[in-house]
Design a protein that fits this description.
Elements: E1 8-11, E2 20-27, E3 30-34, E4 45-47, E5 52-54, H1 63-69, H2 76-88
Antiparallel strand pairs: 1-2, 1-5, 2-3, 3-4
């Protein structure tokens, strides 16, 4: 299984469908997701990998994503700002929504 921590994903199933999340960990066959707003790091959402769509981050050099990938501590506020920056950018995935 590829390392997914720090990856930005979109939920494709459930009540949070089409929401953006950061992968903060893995537990058994589940991904642990947080967006810093409804789902904080203290209580991440557990979802099966088939219920999320990994998004092409391309050259998204946000420092928070790098901190996550290096397994450094990231606050919920930093996570929200990274997802907002990703959402506001001109990325390939936005053309399919």
């Amino acid at each position: 299984m590829a390392e997914r921590i720090g990856q930005i994903v979109r939920s494709v199933a459930g009540h949070d469908k089409s929401e953006l999340f950061c992968v903060v960990g893995e537990q058994d066959e589940f991904l642990l997701l947080a967006n810093g707003k409804q789902r904080k790091v203290a209580s991440p959402k557990r979802k099966k990998p088939g219920h999320v769509q990994p998004l092409d981050q391309g050259e998204f050099p946000h420092p928070v994503i790098r901190k996550l990938q290096n397994k450094e501590t990231v606050s919920d506020r930093e996570r929200r700002s990274a997802l907002a920056a990703f959402k506001g950018g001109n990325h390939i995935w936005q053309k399919t929504i």
